[in-house]
Amino acid sequence: MTPDSLSPRDLRRSLGAVYACIFANGLGMGLSLPLFSLLLERNGVSATLIGANVMTGAVAMIIVTPFIPALAARFGTVRFLVACYAIAAACLIGFRAADSLLLWFVFRFVLNAALQGLFVASEVWINQIAPERMRGRLIAIYTAIFSAGFALGPGIIQLLGTQGWAPFIAGSVTMMAALIPLIVVARRLVPVIEHAKAGAMFGFVFSSPSAAGAALCYGAVEACAGAFLAIYAVRQGIAETQSTLLIGALGLGNMLLVPFIGWLADKTDRRHVLIGCGIACIAAAAFLPMIRAIGPWELGIVLLWGGVISAIYAVWLAHLGARFRGGELAAANSAFAIIYATGTMVGPSLGGLAMDLWNPHGLVVVLALIPAVFVMVTAWRAATFRTPAGS
Questions:
Q1: How wide is the angle at C-alpha 36 spanned by C-alphas 31 and 39, nearest 5°?
Q2: Is the bond preceding residue 360 a cis peptide, omega within 30 degrees?
Q3: Between the chain's N and C termini, which has fewer beta carbons within 10 Å?
Q4: What is the pLDDT of residue 385?
Q5: Using DSSP, how many helices (H) and how many strands (E) does the chain show?
């Protein structure tokens, strides 16, 4: 399926379904990261073990991603997506039902594997159907809707708290509701995901190292902040329910600022935009030790932070869609997802260990160091290669 083969009406229907898909992925991540971490913290689990639990989810994403194109091609994209929705919703309920740390690790693994299926399939989907003249805008909306789902997760915690079954049931029901556009209006419009060879996935790293660095930075900072920002605030003396407002601001920033940053990247060298985003990430992390209460200024800084973090991802996702097609696109998206998943493993692991070594400000060091390395690599590539296409 290509953009030219879709009527305007079918394009809108297909976009509605793919946007619902990435919304469900964002909801699963935005709810599970702070909720699971706060529950583990309340049960006396160390920050290092909490980081290991998040890392288990990242390991799942890395393991399953190479098989996602093949599974979607074999069973059909629609059946594959329905299974991912159902498994993710069931895992949210299962986590609450379990009373064993070992089972929490198992459910985290399975949940993130299912969410990764939604993530990779929706990335290939949006890149296949987006017309070139609208690619940047449509992918910016895609990223913003992911962020809306990510922001809704902490919103559910704000409304229902962290006690009892309510937040888990609400998350599960909302996720299954996001399946409706796929089943009702768009199941005949879902594009076929072509099989991608593992060699092509790994070759992507060498053909586009800046994109690989963007995926790694985005995954590491997003997952680390999502897992530990609320805990950091609690250790700074802020109430637990208030602390989750920071996660909501992070997701809201992703939703509000990415379209503007994506427009800016269309007007100039995207690497310069990415360097600016990386520097803003460093500055926002340095601000964290000054947070003593949750007010407009604190939420505003975190909102800006969320926007620049997500822009790093959105700018390069649009680049992949413009550069690759067919099986190469599936391979590039899968490689991007694997590197992103590696970041989600590295970031929380380093963040949890750093918090145990320097409580709580070790987190700040990690959240500033990761984008600092990304800025240096991207600046070197921008100075070495004059044209963005060679990045």
A1: 125
A2: yes
A3: N
A4: 66
A5: 15, 0
161-to-1, 2, 42 alpha-carbon distances in Å = 44, 44, 13
Closest CA to 152 of 139, 167, 163, 162: 167
Residue 1: exposed, middle, or buried by beta-carbon count in 10 A (0-12, 13-18, 19+)? middle
pLDDT in tens, 352-391: 889 989 988 899 999 999 999 999 888 887 777 665 444 4
Tell me which of 194 and 213 has the higher pLDDT. Answer: 213
Is residue 16 pLDDT above 70, yes or no?
Answer: yes
Q: How far apart are CA 255 and CA 145, in angstroms?
A: 7
Rounded to whole angstroms, the Cα distance separating 322 from 130 reads 10
Q: Which of 239, 217, 191 is nearest to 375 (CA)?
A: 217
Give the three-state DSSP class for 272: helix
Mean local confidence (pLDDT), 56-61: 85
Full-prediction pTM beyond 0.90? no
C-alpha span between 379 and 391 (Å, rounded): 11
Positive or negative: CA dihedral 372, 310, 388, 270: negative
Q: What is the pLDDT of residue 320?
A: 67
Residue type, 381: R
Q: If DSSP codes are grouped into helix, strand and coil, which group holds residue 324?
A: coil
Instruction: Residue count of the chain, please give it.
Output: 391
- d(CA 78, CA 231) in angstroms, rounded, equals 38
Closest CA to 258 of 367, 142, 153: 142
pLDDT band at 12 (very low <50, low <70, confident <90, very high): confident
d(Cα 378, Cα 278) in Å, to the nearest integer? 9
Alpha carbon distances (Å) from 358 to 66, 187, 235: 37, 51, 12
Q: How far is residue 294's CA from residue 303's CA, in Å, rounded to a whole number?
A: 12
How would residue 327 be classed by pLDDT, with cut points 50, 70 and 90?
Answer: low
Q: Contact, 292 vs 191, CB < 8 A?
A: no
- For residues 211 and 391, the answer to whether their CB atoms sit within 8 Å is yes
